[in-house]
Amino acid sequence: MADLTQNPGRSASLLKMLKTPWAVIVVALLGVAVLDPDNLQGVVEFAVKALAHTGQYILFAVLLLAYLKATGAEVMVARAFVGRETRMIFLAAMFGGLAPFCSCEVIPFIAGLLALGAPLSAVMAFWLSSPLIDPPTLLITAGALGWPFAIGKAVAAVALGLFGGFVIKGLMSRGAFAQPLRQYKPSGCCGSGPTEQEKPVWKFWTEPARRTVFKSEFASNAVFLFKWLAMAYVLEALLVFYVPADLIAQLVGGEGVVPIATAALVGMPAYLNSYVAPPLLAGLMEQGMSAGAAMAFMVAGAVSSIPAMAAVWSLVKPRVFAMYLGLGISGAIMAGILFQMI
């Protein structure tokens, strides 16, 4: 204790290290090793397999972002969104509903889009709609819950994206969310990026300075995304092994608006695989869970699982994170109420 007191710099560094994702991963795995050693291998294998599956998306996104930075193409990307925000919101919501990405898999792309100047409104539209539906999920949902439920979820995905996108657009017009990223790096004002008059150099490897930028951007983004997603999947593994999804879902039985709202609130932090959810919810609906509550639970759970929230928190400022959760909860509740009425 005296050593820490006499060396405040060392204690500050130790405290900072304990707040990192690596520390969370180590503590979580040590806890499993001590309290439930029989499941340690299963938890580790689950997290590693999930991270390996997402790794292909991380690698592609990191390479693309490093390439765009090295070539100076971020100016072109930013120009593509000027004056087209409404159109981009519609396209983002539509394509987000068709993209075969879960919440965690879109995080690298969200980071790249925001860093390159894409409007937060369009990114939010894609962000909210993307994890809700894809072709395999649509077919599985239809098989377990029927086509009306599957089509309702697909419509809810697009509608939620549009709702979130235009809400953000309205708030941004009043000056909100000017700098959504935690580590915002403006381009062009400090000699760190291209100006509007510059043209991209697509063959960046011909210039040593641009090769250096590519290597630096690739390394920093790869480490940044890997550590947060590794922590996210360890947390997801703990939920899968120790918090049964059916036990959580059983808390939202009954009719009316209250079960729908409760289902959305429970679904936000609860892990629920999109391929496992339909059969599970079909059984719960047979036991008395309303269709509206099932829809709210499925929408809220897909929009923001624990792994997704952990990764999102690492990318954006708290007010943007809070807005994302607020839009997800309110959108899930509205989707459940409308589906129940129909």
Largest beta sheet, briefly? none
Q: How far do the termini sit from each other?
A: 65 Å
Number of helices: 17
Number of β-strand runs = 0
Count of folded domains = 1
Low-confidence stretches: 184-197
Family: Belongs to the UPF0718 family.
Transmembrane segments: 20-37, 57-77, 89-118, 138-168, 218-242, 248-272, 293-315, 321-339
Membrane topology: Multi-pass membrane protein
Protein name: Permease
Can you describe what's shown?
Helix 9 crosses helix 10. The protein has 17 helices and no strands. About 4% of the residues have low confidence. It starts with a helix and ends with a helix. Helix content is 73%, strand content 0%. With 342 residues, it is mostly helical. The protein has one domain.
Question: Which terms summarize this structure?
Answer:
mainly alpha; 342 residues; 73% helix; single chain; globular
Topology, element by element:
Layout: H1 2-6, H2 8-18, H3 21-35, H4 40-71, H5 74-81, H6 85-98, H7 107-115, H8 120-129, H9 135-145, H10 147-172, H11 208-242, H12 245-249, H13 257-267, H14 277-286, H15 291-303, H16 306-315, H17 318-341
Protein name: Permease
GO cellular component, one term: plasma membrane
Membrane topology: Multi-pass membrane protein
